[in-house]
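Handout, page 2. Input:
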Amino acid sequence: MTENKYTPAKIAEELLKIKAVFLNPNEPFMWASGIKSPIYCDNRLILTSPKAREIVENGIAGSVKKYYPEAEVLMGTSTAGIAHAAIAAYLLGMPMGYVRGSAKDHGRNNRIEGRLEKGQKVVVIEDLISTGGSCIEVVAALREAGAEVLGVVSIFTYGMKKGLERLKAANVENHSLSNFDTLIEVAAKEGYISTEDIARLQQFMSNPSDESWMK
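Output:
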């Protein structure tokens, strides 16, 4: 039997290996929101690693085929999801485009780039989902343009309660290649963190604004 290279654990392993994800409970990172976090994710590094890129992009393509076989076009989120949508669309032989953060202030004032017909079945490609806000905005823009958004395929999700609730309220389905719980299990197994750190990391994710996990 051929080994499945695209399991959540395999994806997590690659993200840790190329340092696309940093875990440092003892010296937390500062997020833009002001929250001190033991985890920082930069999935743009996937593009600079041929092995990780092959695994991730085939994982995205496989998820589109598995969960959304009727998809007609892929739409990347700007800017991090664009390259992943383009590569996955190439692998699938599908058209792609992307959604800007806001409409251009010149030319045709496009927010959606690429050809999109009303009624087309769309899958959004996102690199990272935390609170879900930017992803939901992209879905809303596509729906407003007349697309039928089937769902989202993302590379990684923190699985934050706020994010899950917002996606549900907006009727947005997401399938991530890997997730926070899997990542910390793999990280402990591979020696990136100690087993004692797992509880602290889980405590942070249950309530990121509560800094008691650092003590």
